[in-house]
Amino acid sequence: MTEKLSESGRETLLAPLYETGWELDAEKDVLKKTFKFADFTEAFAFMTRAALWAEKWDHHPDWSNGYNKVTVRLTTHDVGGVTALDAKLARKMDQILT
Amino acid sequence: MTEKLSESGRETLLAPLYETGWELDAEKDVLKKTFKFADFTEAFAFMTRAALWAEKWDHHPDWSNGYNKVTVRLTTHDVGGVTALDAKLARKMDQILT
């Protein structure tokens, strides 16, 4: 979980995320997505649910919020790039919305 | 509450905030402060409490979080600058920590 994803790992784990709107900042090796909601209460409710998973997995997002938007950046600082744990948290964030 | 602060209003309302670590980005007319906590749970607990006040007052911060840090930017987009409502929310955020 804590090794930078290999090329094949990226194809397996990241390709499905690209289809739900995640993008890879290749230079920084960071997964990024902006979620939009109806209003602040929905945006913050999403953050709260995601925060519980992040803490449970001891893997925390860099994220920002302005009213109904939440921009998430996921990377594993310890290894300087995207790992399976980032993909797992990204998937969970998508699942929260379904 | 929704008019840009006058010069005298700034002296009255913002001067005390500067003493607690708030800074004014004069060009953008945005109040900014970075709060640091022991860990993610404390940082997110702060955000949660602040979020309730923000929603109650229908005045929401632009803020970002990475692990134990929360950077807050306050301005009133409707009037393009800092208002008494921004100062009120800034004071509340400080109070949450005391």
UniProtKB/TrEMBL annotation, chains A, B:
Reaction(s) catalysed by this chain's protein: (4aS,6R)-4a-hydroxy-L-erythro-5,6,7,8-tetrahydrobiopterin = (6R)-L-erythro-6,7-dihydrobiopterin + H2O
Pfam families: Pterin_4a
Keyword annotations: Lyase
Enzyme class, UniProt record, top EC level: lyase
Domain of life the protein comes from: Bacteria
Entry EC number(s): 4.2.1.96
GO molecular function, one term: 4-alpha-hydroxytetrahydrobiopterin dehydratase activity
GO biological process, one term: tetrahydrobiopterin biosynthetic process
Family of the protein in this entry: Belongs to the pterin-4-alpha-carbinolamine dehydratase family.
Name listed for the protein in its UniProt record: Putative pterin-4-alpha-carbinolamine dehydratase
